[in-house]
Amino acid sequence: MSASRTLLLTADAAGIADAARLLRDGRLVALPTETVYGLGADATDGRAVAAIYEAKGRPSFNPLIAHVGEPSEALKLGVFDRYAEALACVFWPGPLTLVVPMAAEAGISDLARAGLDTVGLRVPSHPVARALLNAAGRPVAAPSANRSGHVSPTTAAHVLADLDGRIDAVLDAGPTEVGVESTIVACLGEEPVLLRPGGVPREAIEAVIGRPLAAASDETTIAPGMLASHYAPSAAIRLDISEVSPGEALLAFGPDPLPGATRVLNLSPTGDLAEAAANLFGHLRALDVSGTKGIAVMPIPREGLGEAIRDRLARAAAPRT
């Protein structure tokens, strides 16, 4: 999804209302937070989330943080244990992201979660961000509003320098307070785990939970949003196939699926890469749980979002230890 021109909206009531309407319509809006400008899209809309990756040129699909305007809204999206509840009570709104199991009715898209059953949630403290999120009425995925590998933006001009014509609007609230990213804490088991240090000090978190934070394992890779983990199918995956082997399911792309599969799901019958990205994790999971011995994947173009789709599929097909 790209814009012919990027609107510069003033952070007044009219501008916030326009930005909220664009988000509800599945468009991309850069918004201020307490640290940097984020590139926002409706986190429940897989195609809108795909447009984030397309605009940023991200090389792979990593989980994104879902932002909401009120702690009460965040509590509806995740399953909070006593530690998560305590931390949310003390540090929200603010620069803390909590990774928790996703609530059954949350509706956060597979692509925003990279296929995981967990979700990263944050309630920013910036008043304009909160006003926009409340007006939009839905969770907003919002990594930094810049091209991948570039410096994070702290003004609307910085956003436009990178993304003018690639996104629909920037909500200009002036310079943000330049600070570290949000602290990320996972509350998924017996003890909370520090995934990324950030704006809330470790000591403050440990004082609230009454115990030391566990460290992330050495195998853990931290992404700009949260853990760079993804849903990994148990079925063997073959890429760029020209024919389907007996007993395999087919992950198709385009108008002409190959014959012979036990089950077929098509990422995009029309060859639309944004649609393919939105369907990627859900289709992989559906084929994986069907009992197939393997998943054959038709060739995906390398351009645009195809690069990120192919990167994700290559990771899913890699040998497991």
Span between termini: 38 Å
Give the overall form: globular
- The portion of residues assigned to helices is 25-40%
Order of strands side by side in the largest beta sheet? 1-8-2-3-7-4-6-5-9-10-11
Q: What is the tally of helical segments? A: 9
Give short descriptive properties of this protein.
9 helices, alpha/beta, 321 residues, four-stranded parallel sheet, eleven-stranded mixed sheet
Describe this structure in words.
- By secondary structure, the protein is an alpha/beta fold.
- Helices cover 30% and strands 18% of the residues.
- It has 9 helices and 15 strands.
- It has helices at residues 13-24, 46-56, 71-77, 82-91, 127-136, 156-163, 202-209, 273-288, 305-317; strands spanning 7-10, 29-32, 37-42, 65-67, 96-101, 118-122, 140-141, 169-172, 183-186, 193-196, 214-215, 236-238, 248-252, 264-266, 294-297.
- A hairpin with a 4-residue loop joins β2 (29-32) and β3.
- α1 packs across α5 (127-136), α2 (46-56) crosses α8 (273-288) and α8 packs parallel to α9.
- The longest helix is centred in the C-terminal third of the chain and has 16 residues, at 273-288.
- It is globular, with a radius of gyration of 20 Å.
- It starts with 6 loop residues before the first strand and ends with a helix.
